[in-house]
Amino acid sequence: MKTQLSPDRDLSAQIAEAIRDAIVSGQLIVDARLPSEAELSDTFGVSRPTVREALKRLAAQSLIRTRRGATGGAYVNRLSYDEAYGQQITTSTLLLSMNEVDFHTACEARFAMERACVALSAQRRSADHLAAMRAEVHRQSQPGLSDESFCASDVAFHRALVDGAGNPVLSYQLAGAVEAMQPLMNMITYSARPREQIIHLHTTLTDALENGDAAQAETLLTELEQITQMLGETTLQARAKAKG
Amino acid sequence: MKTQLSPDRDLSAQIAEAIRDAIVSGQLIVDARLPSEAELSDTFGVSRPTVREALKRLAAQSLIRTRRGATGGAYVNRLSYDEAYGQQITTSTLLLSMNEVDFHTACEARFAMERACVALSAQRRSADHLAAMRAEVHRQSQPGLSDESFCASDVAFHRALVDGAGNPVLSYQLAGAVEAMQPLMNMITYSARPREQIIHLHTTLTDALENGDAAQAETLLTELEQITQMLGETTLQARAKAKG
DNA sequence: ATACAATTAATTGTCTGACAATTAAAATCG
DNA sequence: CGATTTTAATTGTCAGACAATTAATTGTAT
């Protein structure tokens, strides 16, 4: 662990960086215990508050966890898929909202990525995945469902589709991306007619995966994208009209 | 901003959460200035070090930036694509290394996602993208190139391919994913024969994009994946042999 | 000897108060 | 009016203290 600090940059940031490097490079392995705050103060030649600020930076990225008490201290955290999702989602969500990504771009990206794993899903999806998808389709066809709930169910449907590919890396990347786009997708108002269309496409898509027909599944996803794009456009136009 | 803190959880974590919520929900907009540390201490009823730990947590996620001086303070940060990349890459890299994702899975995910945008690239790639790709192919054919450099150039090539899709969301998601897999891809040793094959596929792939032939581009990517998978397997077998 | 209780030590969490460094604005002076 | 100095506000860092928590150790009674 590098202990040479330059005095002109934030000390806590440099210390956090040094420890992060040690973790990423494998010098500090999972569940390894870091020196106590007092020891770190000594080795880096800074005060304990400064060390603590550094440790909080790392804790914010789920790189370490801390525990009080006799055998307490800071331990290198095994980054779980769930934690990683969470961070990716907040990051992506902020990125999309702050940089004013338009609906069209977000939608295009989402469906492009989904098409990426539909071929694998057609080969590997389990009965559980198909059941989960059909369950969501059923929920979507319930009368009186709010737009938000319909949208949430839509996400769950696509999540099952993605998980069907049986590749955790793909699931991780896509789930993060799809969830991050939720705020944008949530702007849509789903009236009765498009809901019918979407539900029909979802049903057919599930059938296609059951039959291992990847090509048809891709075509159906493209159709879904077109409907979604149209709905988004309509919604935006309606808003612009209400505004002006 | 919620100021009600429960005494049994980390105060700095709760404060960070409260401010983060205010940012994500839009109560605090980009470039808004947070109250000074002294003011935050008062409103939350905690000491300044505690407030500072909370702010460092947010800074670690690039949610705020701080500046010293008269008009200094903590400001809500506009998350840039670069910062978001950086965070996604460290998170994904750690996730892959700590959870022992195998080469096959990582490789499959990478190429699946690349196929996701090749269709768009075939439509939209500019002359600049094609030029960048050809430049990397040229570098790859230089004699005496180290495996690591070859690999880095490979990433640059695929990065140009992805950017060619002209969708910043797609670029962001994919660039992060591809870079995170670098440590795994770097294990490969590229001997002369596979290099030739790869370079040939890269050239043909560039041509396909230039001609707008999406179908052929996808096929070529699949061939590239097969070669990469084979190389990975060979490398791993060689390592296992050397070990045992 | 064993089960249970009290003590102890190590460690993080928090507070107080102080001073240094930095920065922009305000005041001063030529 | 322009350049320089002063001032005020703010973050960065430090030192020392005490509270809270936790596990190990010690002590004690059965």
TrEMBL record, chains A, B:
PROSITE patterns: HTH_GNTR. Keywords: DNA-binding, Transcription, Transcription regulation. Residues 9-79 form the HTH gntR-type domain. It holds the Pfam family FCD. One of its GO terms (molecular function) is DNA-binding transcription factor activity. This is GntR family transcriptional regulator. SUPFAM superfamilies: GntR ligand-binding domain-like, Winged helix' DNA-binding domain.
